[in-house]
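Exercise 7.
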Amino acid sequence: MVNKDQLADLFASHPFHIQEIYRLVIQPHSTLREFKTECAGFLFSIRGEARLNVNGKNYDLQPGSVMHVTPECQLALQVISQSEYEYHSLFYHLNCDKQSDCDTVFKLETGSNPRIIEILTMLHQNVHTPGGMGKLRVKELFMRILYQMLMGCNQKESSPHERVIEEAIAYIRGQYMIPLTLQDLAELFDMNPKSFSYFFHKYTGLHPIDYVIQYRMERALEILKAGNIPIRDVAMTVGYPNQLYFSRLFKKKFGVPPSAYTAK
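Solution. The predicted structure, written as tokens, is:
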């Protein structure tokens, strides 16, 4: 596990230089072809979900995930969400002779933090600003990102509610085909419905039942794309005995009815 205080001390105590920062948006289910890193860097996941392969090992990334890579890493990325995947990659050179966490590949989870996105955008706009003041501004922005990132990790790790919501998400993904109500989910995790809904929305950006519907619709789309399966069977598979209700939800989510896929 990465020692976050030592990582902070490393950048606070040694000279570093920001080499480059990139922003990429990749379409759903697309693949970013394999490439090799020239220097160390951080990859910040902004929206969508992806699977990053680093030297043969897979890491699942979601909003709030931060991946650190080292020089000469072989990277390949595949978007696994139904929506676009956006990330910022920030490459740097740290002038430090001793062995440290910066010489390793690791993943951090910062949780949702709009401030990091805001500062990344500012850094992207300023990275090529000439002169000493420009360089100072870039370093100042990077240190703010690093601080927000490490503080976010500490808060996430210290939050029992975050762990409960992660367990709830895993439960929903495993049991989405059965009836799920807010009351049932809250009782399952020993919380009252109001508190459960509040913390679920805080950490995911969605209310529990909205998340259930979204996940069911994504699974339904995968099933429909897999073959010519009757809509009523797809509806039942993802937890909707009422085919008409399922079709309304599907069209609301994707803009077209499920029949648009069965007709293909």
